[in-house]
Amino acid sequence: AKPAPKPSKKLKGSASAFKKLDGLDWRKEGRTLTYWLHRWVRLRDTEVMTNGRYGNCICCGRHKAFEQLEAGHFIRSRHMGTRWHEKNINAQCSYCNRWLGGNELKYREGLIKKYGPGIIDELEVEKKLNARHPDAIYLKLRAVRYRMLCEGIEG
Fold first, then answer.
1. What is residue 113's three-state secondary structure?
2. Can you spell out the DSSP letters for 16-75?
3. Contact of 85 with 76, CB cutoff 8 Å
4. Which of 128, 111, 129 is nearest to 120 (CA)?
5. What whole-number percentage of the chain has pLDDT above 90?
6. Run of H or E residues at 93
């Protein structure tokens, strides 16, 4: 009997090693989901005014135009369990998000004000529970959901 072929060392640790049998790559689907989820978060956290969409930064409360707001993460996006968690991502001005490194103390206060006192513990648990690489099909379906939500809001 002929021995089974050994797996190619070339794939080990590379991005293509993460490709699923269905032909989807979780990284590619994750980028698509990130785009639509971040857009939806900014739409969720803004409202239509006479001269465009405006919202407030979760940290400093500054009133900013939709285009000037970013989708900032309370728990950094390197943690898979909360990378795409709706409550972990909120509209944030670029000053707080980039220059102040997320402005964590004020972000924490803003989260508690928005979602209640248990939100920090909820996110910390989620961060640890779902630490594995997500299924590409799941990411694709979530991206479609957020795209449809965005299209519904934007008309």
1. helix
2. GGGB-TTS-BHHHHHHHHHHHHHHHHHHHTEEEETTEEEEE-TTT--EEEGGGEEEEESS
3. no
4. 111
5. 70
6. strand 89-93
Average confidence (pLDDT) over 52-74: 96
Q: How far apart are CA 122 and CA 111, in angstroms?
A: 11
Largest CA distance in the chain: 76
Q: How far apart are CA 108 and CA 20, in angstroms?
A: 37
Token couple for 134: 């997500």
Q: Report residue 59 CA to chain centroid gap.
A: 17
Confidence at residue 13, expressed as pLDDT on a 0 to 100 scale? 44
Residue with tokens 């009997």: 1
Query: What pTM does this model have?
Result: 0.81
Residue 7 has pLDDT above 70, yes or no: no
Q: pLDDT band for position 134 (50/70/90)?
A: confident
